[in-house]
From TrEMBL:
GO terms for molecular function: catalytic activity. This is Protein HTATIP2. It holds the Pfam family NAD_binding_10. It comes from Peucedramus taeniatus (Olive warbler). It comes from the Eukaryota.
Length: 170
């Protein structure tokens, strides 16, 4: 494990050397970082990490994005997620897997009351419609590992929430 300063990511190129697979789940919130900070973390840092990984020999990059990601969206969150998907694909990995989970169900250390209520509601909905609106972070992690072990055909593979659930069961 290497600890890097994302503001000086280029100085940490050695940490990205010699890896066959790269996993990226980097992200923040607009509330926590402001609009500019959100863009810097969720797009710029991710794109630069992908470039460093590719330069370091990475063949397969696995990116956690978001349901609804679209570079043309009017919503900042979805637009930035779509932009970073395009930037990562343009890096030229042999394989690029993009996971687009719905609402992530997880326990957080920080207090986010609205998110907590949403997660409780969606957790209950998941009993009836398990793959419709949410996914536990553990399921996403298992799906990412499965993608690394069996990258499949094609240069780019995009997995929506239902496919993440299926792959995460393995």
């Amino acid at each position: 494990q290497a600890v890097v300063d994302f503001e000086r990511l280029g100085e940490h190129a050695a940490a990205f050397q010699g890896h066959d697979v790269g996993f990226c789940c980097l992200g923040t919130t607009r509330a926590k970082a402001g609009a500019d900070g959100f863009v810097r973390v969720d797009r710029d840092y991710v794109a630069q990490a992908a470039e460093l990984a590719r330069a370091g020999g990475c063949k397969h990059f696995i990116l956690q994005s978001s349901r609804g990601a679209n570079a043309q969206s009017r919503f900042l969150y979805l637009r930035v997620k779509g932009e970073v998907e395009n930037l990562v694909q343009a890096v030229g990995f042999d394989h690029c897997t993009i996971l687009r989970p719905a609402v992530l169900l997880c326990k957080r250390q920080e207090s986010r009351p609205v998110e907590w209520i949403t997660q409780k509601f969606l957790g209950a909905v998941a009993w009836v419609f398990p793959t419709a609106y949410s996914v536990p972070v553990e399921t996403v992690a298992r799906a990412m590992v499965a993608c690394a072990l069996q990258p499949g055909e094609g240069k780019v593979k995009v997995l929506e929430n239902g496919a993440i659930h299926e792959l995460g069961k393995a």
